[in-house]
Write a structure and sequence with these properties.
The complex is a heterodimer. By secondary structure, chain A is mainly alpha-helical. Chain A has two domains: 10-116 and 212-237, no CATH class; 131-200, no CATH class. Chain A has helices spanning 10-13, 16-32, 36-53, 57-63, 65-79, 89-100, 102-115, 118-128, 131-164, 172-200, 218-234, 236-241. Chain B has one domain (14-184): Orthogonal Bundle (Arp2/3 complex 21 kDa subunit ARPC3), CATH 1.10.1760. Chain B has seven helices and two strands. Chain B has helices at residues 13-33, 49-77, 91-94, 98-116, 129-155, 159-166, 170-185, and strands spanning 36-37, 46-47. The chains are: A mainly alpha, B mainly alpha.
């Protein structure tokens, strides 16, 4: 699985807010323009991101093969017909076009995941979403990162325990009910302990934030992100201001 | 060197409790998304992911349940491998099942709004089983109402074709609604009161 790894690549040195802007901007661009030009922009940004993060496309393919396999199903589903031609090329191509636009977004988000520590993402969320909601989101996301492996471990342990007691022979509903009931019980015990721990540590609305600072090289990245995010507006401009013969 | 002196603004006890519950429930949803039970006779795996959305709405109410699901989605966007099969990143929302992820959030809000009818979650003892069922089915309907057209748009196929592709997953999801009510009504959660 692809996770953060410390490094000294260009992408590692960038501010997380700029990188998030490029991700969101690219997602908007590729969905607004399912055209060759849109694919070219998406491909260029993806290749630049991979180079900036010094991440091999092969490792992305390996990490996200399930996603790519799901996407590949689309054109097949779109083309299959319950009638004489059995497989229609036109709808399959349409489907391939809409599937292809997701690919650069997956690559760019993989670079983000590889080059951005969770602490920075949390600080970025806390800075971008204003007020108390943003603070709760910042803390909450950090807690989800922390608790996910623990709760997953709980569930696996419960499943093993159910199996060890011959649970495989019980009806599905019964098995699921046991796993869920124990899982919820353990999770809420953890939530209660977490509540106590947060109160004991004077959990406050105004804690000390990790420092985030924009440097010179972050501005072009942010500009690219904003330009990509606003790209659906560009089509309106030439038609209105520059008469196209 | 500058130093700042300001008073500590403590978070209210209720908010701390709800935040902790929402974060742990988001983590539970993430963990459930990694587990599925194969059912050879039906052909589709029995995914446990929807239970996270159901429990969030039913146990935490519309606001905190929605917050729990939003935390789950933001954590996944930020790179935690919390989506099904250990996937992560914003690209997931552009994928085939992205609409269902957003649907889980809206579904939890709808379930919470119908069952609790107020911001702060009520005790489930005060909510009758039929109301819980109505809330959960409305939430499930929202999940499909967002997920199926989204899938059709992403794959470039008609809504009808997408609905046909998702049809095998619907009956197990109905079973999940009843299992959810069975779990919360079974007295297993008394510890929370």
């Amino acid at each position: 699985m692809l996770t953060y790894e410390p490094g000294d690549s260009v992408a590692h040195g960038l501010d997380p807010r700029g990188k998030l802007a490029v991700q969101f901007g690219l997602a908007i661009t590729v969905f607004a323009y399912p055209t060759p030009a849109g694919f070219a922009v998406g491909g260029l940004v993806a290749v630049a991101a991979l180079a900036a993060g010094r991440l091999s496309p092969v490792s992305v393919l390996r990490a996200y093969w399930v996603v790519f396999a799901f996407l590949a199903v689309g054109p097949i589903l779109g083309g299959v017909a319950l009638g004489d031609p059995w497989f229609r090329v036109g709808p399959a191509l349409d489907s391939l076009r809409s599937v292809a636009r997701v690919v650069p977004v997956v690559f760019v988000s993989a670079v983000y995941v590889r080059t951005t520590p969770v602490r920075e993402t949390r600080a970025a969320i806390q800075r971008m979403v204003p007020g108390r909601v943003g603070r709760l989101f910042g803390v909450g996301v950090g807690l989800v990162f922390r608790f996910f492996p623990v709760v997953l471990g709980d569930l696996r342990a419960i499943r093993t325990a159910v199996r060890a007691r011959g649970g495989e022979r019980r009806p599905l509903r019964d098995r699921v009910r046991r796993i869920l009931a124990r899982g919820l019980q353990r999770s809420f015990l953890r939530a209660d302990r977490l509540t106590l721990a947060l109160r004991a540590r004077c959990f406050a609305w105004n804690p000390t934030l990790p420092a985030l600072r924009f440097r010179g090289r972050d501005y072009p990245v942010l500009a690219l992100g904003l330009a990509l995010a606003c790209s659906p507006l560009f089509t309106l401009v030439p038609g209105r201001f520059i008469p196209v013969a | 060197m500058t130093e700042e002196y300001e008073s500590v603004d403590l978070v209210a006890d209720d908010t701390v409790r709800n935040l902790a519950a929402a974060a742990v429930l988001a983590a539970l949803t993430a963990a459930l998304a990694q587990l599925s039970i194969p059912i050879p006779s039906v052909g589709v795996p029995f995914s446990l992911q929807p239970f996270g959305s159901f429990f969030a709405g039913l146990l935490l109410g519309p606001v905190w349940g929605g917050f729990a699901m939003a935390l789950y989605l933001v954590a996944g966007t930020a790179g935690a491998p919390v989506f099904a099969n250990g996937a992560a990143g914003i690209g997931q929302f552009g994928g085939r099942t992205g609409g269902f992820l957003v649907g889980f959030l809206l579904g939890a809000v709808v379930t919470g709004a119908i069952t609790h009818r107020q911001v702060a979650p009520r005790s489930l003892d005060d909510i009758s089983v039929p109301v819980q069922l109505v809330g959960l089915f409305a939430g499930l309907a929202v999940v499909y109402a967002v997920g199926v057209p989204w899938m059709a748009e992403v794959l470039g196929i008609s809504v009808r074709a997408a609905a046909a592709a998702m049809a095998p997953f619907f009956p197990p999801d109905v079973v999940k609604v009843f299992v959810t009510v069975g779990v919360v009504e079974g007295g297993h959660l008394a510890i929370r009161e």
